[in-house]
Amino acid sequence: KGVMVQHRGVVNRLVWMQPRFGLDRYHVVLQKTRFSFDVSVWELFAPLLVGARLVMIQSEGDKDPNYLTRVILQNNVTMVNFVPASLQLFLEESNIAKCTTLLHVLCGGEVTPVALKHRFQKRLPNAVLHNLYGPTETTIDATIWTCSSESLPASSLPIGRPIANTQIYILDAYG
Questions:
Q1: 161-162 and 143-146 as β-strands: parallel, antiparallel, unpaired?
Q2: Bridge-partner residues for 156, per DSSP?
Q3: 43 contacts 81 by C-beta, under 8 angstroms
Q4: Residues with Cβ < 8 Å from 59, sequence gap 6 or more?
Q5: Single pTM value for the model
Q6: Strand 143-146 relative to strand 53-56, pairing
Q7: Which ranges of the chain would DSSP assign to H, the alpha helix?
């Protein structure tokens, strides 16, 4: 689908990220999302805005957890984005425990199961998992939930709270 978004929405999303994740010139962001998806916008521009290093993967590299692990290790990647299904595959990679430079893993695009959070925290104890939600029309993401070690009663992670300068409305069947 093609969606028009306003420039100010993109700028808001990029500027919000800097203090939220401590994004600065010492970070290394892995750009692994195809350019036809909205997430690629922050992967490309957020690191460039703060002078961080941007590492781009080879075509189709996002489908190979072993390749992704090697790229993360070789480049000391600190931030990466996954959809939950891809994160699950990545967490099965045998060398993932060596990815100690990962600080922030952003996850969105589909429902994130609580079981995935638990597996993530066991396999990557030094990294923080952030569950993001938002249709493309909201300029990438509208909400964020940063995972902690607390137990959650639900089967999926909460969508969280709105990012800066936005509001959300949760409606029932009657609007």
A1: antiparallel
A2: 113
A3: yes
A4: none
A5: 0.93
A6: unpaired
A7: 7-21, 39-50, 65-75, 84-91, 114-123
